[in-house]
Amino acid sequence: MTCRWGGEVVCIFVHLANVIDLKKILKYLGFPIIEEFPFIVIYILLMGSDTLRNLHGRLLTFDPQVGYGNLFGRYAIYFSMAYILSCIIVFRRWTKPFIYGFFLLFFFLETFLLVFFGFHISAKLLTLLYETTPNESSEFIKTFLFSWDFSLFVSIAVLLVCAIIFLEKLYKRYKNKFFTERLCVYIGGCVFLLLLTSVFYGRTYVDLLNMHTTDEVCIWSGNKFCNPNDPFTNLLAACRSVSVSSNEMEREVIATENAGGKIVSDDSLNVVFVIGESFIKYHSSVYGYYLQTTPNMQKERDRGNLFVFNNVMSPYNYTSAAIRNMMSTNSLSDGEKWYDFPYFPAIFKNAGYKVFFWDNQKNVYDGTGASFALNTLLYQPVIQKLAYTKTNKKSFLYDAELIEDFKKNIVKQKLNKHNLFIFHLMGQHINAKERFPNNRKWNYFKISDIKAIQKYINDEKKQSIANYDNATRYNDFILKDLFDYFNNTNTVLVYLSDHGEEVYDYRDSQGRVGGRMCSDFVKYQYDIPMIIWCSDRFKRKNVDLLCNIPSCTNKPLCSDNICQVLFKLGFVSSKYYIEDRCILSDKYKAKIRKINGDLNYDTLRFNR
Description:
- There is one protein chain.
- The chain is α/β, with parallel strands linked by helices.
- The protein has 2 domains: 10-245, no CATH class; 268-606, Alkaline Phosphatase, subunit A.
- The protein has 25 helices and 15 strands.
- A hairpin with a 3-residue loop joins strand 14 and strand 15.
- The protein is elongated, with a radius of gyration of 29 Å.
- The model is unreliable at 57-62 (pLDDT under 50).
């Protein structure tokens, strides 16, 4: 029976092959390629140029992080877009100048943004265009359009256009010498396969349009190895990001406006909250690392002024999502979204605190999806008014400069009895060698100090590890600077990092590159350091509170509940202070800790 049906199926295909002139179909498919070959090649090269830039040096070395299947799929999408446009040109010749002009305009806009501002077409750009006044537009024109650099840029653009016109004319003259009817059929077959491939990989656009949070769009846009990165795609992602962000921020503002809060202590008090960046706790000597990367923390711990927490993790391994959940009063373990709960600094301000926010990543990564996703919260106009007394005006090359800027500005301020100081550092953000001054003092660790013996380790990678350890030691100096500054006041300081990092720790990888979600992957990218430091005066005034802290240092905590710790240390009463979420409370209840929204951290990390 099976053979009979199988034979009938074969007969059907043979009959279809006889009825349909496959050769003729393939010839038709290949015809637009032959007619508009220069256009297709130029389109793919220009639209895919940023892909090659992101992958420089990795293609020929067969780097496993590249994902060659995704790379092929991406260029299949570029080809399909070029092919569709070439078909339009073939059937409507008059459209060719307009199509060329349209895609070249996007290419030059993207290149202009990269050259002059260091970012792509993005949600940040759309927001700036919407908010720019006529006076600001005039200043922009004066600054850039009449500059020597812009003139050079325009000259190169004109030369490129002239080269395209020359290639088009040259191809038209010699086209018939290179392409035969038989070759056209083969080309048609390749076109068919590439179109099928682009349909399969084109699902990524459906995924993008179905996303409902800026976190999802941020992850999609940031995945340079998997998703298209051409100007048209960047514009689509930017529009989607702006759309979902607007809804999130409306809900966040409403929640924050009704936050409330009050102080339950009359003593003057400074609460300092320091957010680090990309800190691998296993490269910290206060956590047992073999190099002295955190001598100042160790000194304060030995004095009894600093408490080290050993079981703290971040719910995300990228800054925007980690900090938004850190700065809001939601709990991911209970399924709560950050944009449905108040921004916790506003609760401090409502309670009577003055709130100062010094951010060293304020302008550093403008134009990236992550920067837009985070800054739409931190610097949303209503949130700023509700949450801050004063913020810094610019970012700095090194974190020490940020602290000095804070000191210069704070002496001009009339402080309250109660003050909240928030610092967002550059920390050990990749590239670590740029996080500290390049001098003998801070190039403390050398290649010879690094004991890594894995097979993939060489001197270049040892230098990268040394750079990271030097950045960690510099970060420790920043904290010492704050310890010294606040030591003679009634102050408590909480420090933790937004997420972890990798620097050739268990595999041949640096940064936060994706990989199998194994225990080591979670260990280095999601485990974070956390400390509480107290001035001598705070120790004397809060003996009972401090006596309880040592028993809490091994309890499991997710950084989204750090606001509960700050409420308790700052003696702030609010309906959003929930004791069973505060690690310092006797009523604390450890819950399932989630990473990336739905994965059980403890199962992945400890296999339990």
